[in-house]
Design goal:
Layout lengths: L16 H7 L3 E5 L2 E4 L4 E4 L2 H4 L8 H13 L12 H11 L8 E5 L2 H18 L7 E5 L8 H5 L4 H4 L11 E4 L4 H11 L4 E6 L15 H11 L3 E5 L13 H5 L5 E4 L11 E5 L1 H8 L17 H16 L2 H15 L1 H4 L4 E7 L2 E6 L5 H10 L2 E2 L1 E3 L3 E4 L7 H24 L1
Parallel strand pairs: 3-13, 5-6, 5-7, 7-8, 8-9
Antiparallel strand pairs: 1-2, 2-3, 4-10, 9-10, 11-12, 12-15, 14-15
Helix pairs in contact: 3-12, 4-12, 13-16, 15-16
The structure holds pyridoxal-5'-phosphate.
The site of pyridoxal-5'-phosphate has 16 residues, from helix 5.
Length: 423
């Protein structure tokens, strides 16, 4: 299925380029849970791209929203006293979804921007509180928080941090245990709470292999943050906007973070947009009085009008088609479909929460080969850390298609092992 012959200029992300050039898959169209390639194959998108296409591909309504906005006004910046109407409207709307009262919203272009913004704001908060030593950002082992300087520095996936000449591009960062809250408490003690600004955590670790939190873990993080005057930041770039069957995973776990990060599902990928929701504890001092400090942060495209208009139309679709409830219902369907995988010889473990799952293949199976074979069978799978296959389809997928994904995964694993044995 290699195509895009003749195109050599694009340097792909996270890619071994010599191999990619021989086997690039060029996607040119999409509809619902499917995408099409430049050579005409129609592929079932089991991952919703990079966990982004929640409402599915090819929504005319979102193209129209982009067209309408650009026809009227492409964008206007939100620096100083200026703003644009689309950004103002969207901020009010997403503030209403926050898992805490009276949120304020800072927009950026995607998830990595949201991570940078939140980490800077956490550090700024403690400087203004008169606790200047509180600078360290804690993140979980196996976490993925994008690849800007802060995201790279706090990555829990070692390969993403290595090779830049120092352990952390931003100096004050450290990892906490991903599953054992007792060990987290020990790390906080060792580093000293007076040095720690924030804990940044994905409610369900995504790229690190789909790791749902053990019972009590997230609640434990919330307790430790409160006891030690540490800010809690929920990275809901994957889990936000319905993926766990609630608007935000924080609702599902009863979490009230100080900041919440969003991207991907806010537009379902129809425009690059991310942002953070900020709780009053942080924003209040910036919003009142002549002496109010300025948060010196922002991008030309913070609150880009076209992206915000698309986000609003995307949220209209989520609500009109009741897609968050649909995702909640599909959790059970996926769970059932994965039953066969749980008892399969070639599967080490199945992990699922909401409408996302990771199927960890047995160590003997070459997961990359499985994804390649599945692609030939018409299903896009993606390999995460730990020989784990990502399943996170668009919310518009149906039961039969979910069964197709699981069957393609297991059949491809069997075929991969047969090839391994034969060679
Ligand atoms: C949990 C999480 N945070 C942050 C990011 C970074 O987002 P982006 O790639 O939009 O910069 C990602 C991307 O996959 C993510 O999964």
């Amino acid at each position: 299925m290699a195509n895009s012959a003749g195109s050599h200029a694009l340097w792909s992300a996270q890619a071994h380029m010599p191999s990619v050039l021989q086997r690039r898959v060029e996607i040119v169209g999409g509809d619902g849970a499917y995408v099409t390639t430049s050579t005409g194959e129609r592929l079932l998108d089991a991952t919703a791209g990079l966990w982004h296409a929640n409402v599915g591909h090819g929504r005319e309504e979102l193209a129209q929203a982009a067209y309408d906005q650009i026809s009227r006004l492409e964008t206007y910046h939100v620096f100083g006293r200026f703003a644009n109407d689309a950004a103002l409207r969207l901020a009010d709307r997403v503030a209403g979804y926050a898992p805490f009262a009276d949120a304020r919203v800072i927009f950026g272009s995607g998830g990595s921007d949201a991570v940078d913004t939140a980490c800077k704001l956490a550090r700024r908060h403690w400087q203004l509180e008169g606790k200047p030593s509180k600078k360290v950002i804690l993140s979980r082992e196996y976490a993925y928080h994008g690849l800007h300087a802060f995201g790279t520095s706090i990555a829990g996936l070692e390969p993403n941090r290595e090779g830049y000449g120092s352990d952390s591009l931003v100096p004050e960062t450290a990892r906490i245990d991903s599953v054992d809250i007792g060990k987290v408490a020990m790390t906080i003690d060792r580093l000293g709470a007076s040095n720690i600004a924030a804990i940044l955590a994905e409610p369900v670790i995504g790229t690190g292999g789909v790791i749902p939190p053990p019972p009590g873990y997230l609640e434990g993080l919330q307790r430790l943050a409160a006891e030690n005057e540490i800010l809690l930041i929920a990275d809901e770039v994957i889990t936000g906007f319905g993926r766990t069957g609630a608007m935000f995973a924080c609702e599902r776990f009863g979490l009230r973070p100080d900041m919440l990060l969003m991207a991907k599902g806010i537009t379902s990928g129809y425009a690059p947009l991310g942002g953070i929701l900020v709780a009053p504890r942080i924003w209040e001092r910036f919003f009142s009085g002549q002496q109010a400090p300025v948060f010196r942060h922002g991008l030309t495209y913070s609150g880009h009008a076209m992206a915000c208009a698309v986000a609003e139309a995307n949220l209209d679709i989520l609500s009109r088609e009741d897609l968050v409830s649909r995702a909640a219902g599909l959790e059970g369907v996926l769970d059932q479909a994965l039953g066969q995988a749980r008892s399969h010889d070639l599967v080490q473990e199945v992990r699922q929460l909401g409408f996302l799952a990771g199927v960890e293949l047995a160590a003997a199976v070459d997961a990359d080969a499985v994804a390649d074979i599945a692609l030939e069978r018409g299903v896009i799978l993606r390999i995460l850390r730990g020989n784990t296959v990502q399943i996170s389809p668009p919310f518009v997928i149906d039961e039969a298609e979910i069964a197709t994904i699981v069957a393609a995964l297991l059949d491809s694993a069997e075929e991969a092992v047969a090839h391994q044995r034969a060679s």
